[in-house]
Amino acid sequence: MDWTDIAMTVGAVVGFIALTLGTAVFVAAEFSLTALERSTVTDDVATRGDRRSRQVDRAHRTLSFQLSGAQLGITITTLITGYLAEPVLAQFINPALSALRVPTGLHAGLTAVLALVLATSLSMVLGELIPKNLAIALPLATARLTAAPMIAFSAVFKWAINGLNGTANWLVRRLGVEPAEELASARSPQELASLVRNSALHGSIDADTAELVDRSLRFGELTAEDLMTPRVRVTTLGPADTVDDLVRVAADTGHSRFPVCHEGDLDNLVGVVHIKQAFSVPHDELRTTRLDTLVWPVATVPASLDGDAVVEQLAGAGLEVCVVIDEYGGTAGIVTTEDVIEEIVGAVTDEHDDESDEVTTDGAGFLCSGLLRLDELEDATGLRAPEGAYDTLGGLVMYRLERIAAVGDEVVLESLARGRDDRHDDDEESDGNGHGPAEQRWRARVTAMDGRRIDTVSLQPLPDDDTATTTGVDS
């Protein structure tokens, strides 16, 4: 081998290394820019404010153009790398094939294949996989290193990038999608909740904080009907009752606000009284002062009003309570500030509250309140009930019974697998009851009634081979 061949070989090796590094720069720039959040870039500009920060900001604001430039750069460097590497590698492969006594007629084909495989493997590992992993692990640091060469390359090949980008955008628009220059930095509540849960799972934030944020994000999905205390659990007073009656009932129940209505019917609501109003009445007039002289008007909201709007109504109401009206104009229940707080931070009890939990362990299963909402039921037990003409566990049990329940009634409930549509529109995969495939089956047994309402339900998981069916007692 003469000096010319040696020089060409060395030049080819140097060129291979340089082009592989160029591929690495383009790959690192591509992945770091896509991994960066807009807020991270903005904060870096505000904090450091140096030239590299501004370059990253500029590249991130023209993301589509920069990514097209990165793709063009990767394509160019990869093609040239393969062209340079093959003859260099062939010089080492041919002697190896001869030493292995491979027939001379096969050398050309084997050399081309092996050289291509080796060159591609080296280029992929050194030029793509390593910089990709670095960019994902350290997106901001990587972007600060690669933004300047990326912008310079894009400026030089702007004409080619614009042509390729324009063609691609034209095709995308033909598919009915408008191309975006920047990544969307806004996140839906569902996406934010998922981020919070993943952060807690990896230890970035503690579990209690994650639960609080998750509840807060899901709060807007709730309605006034979800937040309210149902009318069957509301203690009322009559307009002819006295302040003395107000004090006595407040002492018995631990509540401070009471709806005042005719004949105990919340549909005939007069207003609301607060225990604090009793302090403004002289002691000798407690038994003669009627509540209809103290009653305050109360705000009303439709049952479908979302949780955020309910909070606004409560904030504007002096008594921090509002009445929920159903679609037929009747009173469905009331919402208080405590109801709202409990949806975000969990159960809040004081010395007057009944501290019995809505869900307690019962052997291998649970003992649940019949008023437990279906979303609360899933969070507490894992039972994911299908949607239907019911909002609570008690409603679900009576829906399956098809009559008013009695103590001892039993039904089998199916917990649907996550990720499936629960609205009973998949007949070919139905279980015969209008439900999708079950993930877990539970036996629900009515253990206590409150009038015609199911008070408590015992939930016990069933083995896969259990063939239990709905049973009941004479009622």
UniProtKB/TrEMBL annotation:
It comes from Gordonia crocea. This is Uncharacterized protein. Belongs to the UPF0053 family. The chain crosses the membrane at residues 6-29, 63-85, 105-127, 134-157. InterPro entries: CBS_dom (IPR000644), CBS_dom_sf (IPR046342), CNNM (IPR002550), FAD-bd_PCMH-like_sf (IPR036318), FAD-bd_PCMH_sub2 (IPR016169), Ion_transp-like_CBS (IPR044751), Transptr-assoc_dom (IPR005170), UPF0053_domain (IPR051676). It comes from the Bacteria. It holds the Pfam family CBS. It is a multi-pass membrane protein.
